[in-house]
Write a structure and sequence with these properties.
The complex is a heterodimer of chains A (116) and B (93).
Chain A: E1 4-5, H1 14-23, E2 32-37, E3 42-50, E4 56-65, E5 73-82, E6 87-93, H2 95-99
Antiparallel strand pairs in A: 1-3, 2-3, 2-6, 3-4, 4-5
Chain B: H1 2-9, E1 14-19, E2 24-32, E3 38-45, E4 57-62, E5 67-71, H2 79-91
Antiparallel strand pairs in B: 1-2, 1-5, 2-3, 3-4
The chains are: A mainly beta (116), B alpha+beta (93).
């Protein structure tokens, strides 16, 4: 099993490749993504790599902390690996929409953890 | 494999996926894989006032393991075909 990287996608089986490009995260490599984790955190960063289990490598990442008392606080995390088990949603961040957001005035309850 | 095949039939339709953290996301079903991970395009969160966390996300990948419900379009299920497929799967043929 190997980690996928934008520049060196090395899957020999072409059908596998086609399948992966349809459903995988290849298209998001080197893009800014927003990850929601099972414990309700929101981490934004540049996707550097991923694997079958949705383990992710994020660069230049930061956490966006939502609260009802103050605007969104951004905590710098840097280079991060997030284990797939702990991931709920991987969203492609639209940079234009994101730059139009006024995070300091955005108030909301933090997302709930994924309960079972 | 039955549900994998079933969801593949729904590609292109609009669905609402409710997650186990109560977040509900509506979008066009782009693809599904063997783990029932779901990719949606043109997404919007059902209660944006309460959940502004994904305001700048229009395409997303949802991990199959956190999906609670998938709300289907009314014409999304042909019960007869699904019955037959279910019986066939149960017989293991």
């Amino acid at each position: 099993m190997e980690f996928r990287k934008g520049s060196s996608l090395s899957i020999s089986d072409s059908s596998k490749k086609e399948m992966a490009s349809d459903t995988g995260l290849e298209l998001l490599i080197e893009q800014t993504i927003s990850v929601i984790t099972n414990d309700g955190r929101n981490i934004v960063g540049v996707l550097k790599g991923f694997d079958q289990a949705t383990n992710l490598i994020l660069d230049e990442s930061h956490e966006r902390v939502y609260s009802t008392k103050a605007g969104v606080e951004q905590l710098v995390l840097g280079l991060y690996i997030i284990r797939g088990d702990n991931i709920s949603v991987v969203g492609e961040l639209d940079e234009e929409l994101d730059s139009n957001l006024n995070l300091s005035s955005l108030r909301a309850h933090p997302l709930k953890p994924v309960g079972h | 494999m039955l549900f994998f095949s079933y969801f593949k039939e729904l590609v292109g339709k609009e669905v609402t996926v409710e997650l186990k953290n109560d977040l509900a996301i509506t979008g066009t079903l782009h693809s599904v894989d063997q783990y029932l991970n779901i990719k949606l395009e043109n997404t919007r969160v059902v209660d944006e006032a309460k959940y502004p966390h994904m305001l700048s996300v229009k395409n997303c990948f949802i991990r199959g393991s956190v999906v609670r419900y998938v709300q289907l379009p009314p014409d999304g299920v042909d019960v007869e075909i699904l019955h037959d497929a279910t019986r066939r799967e149960a017989r293991g043929t």
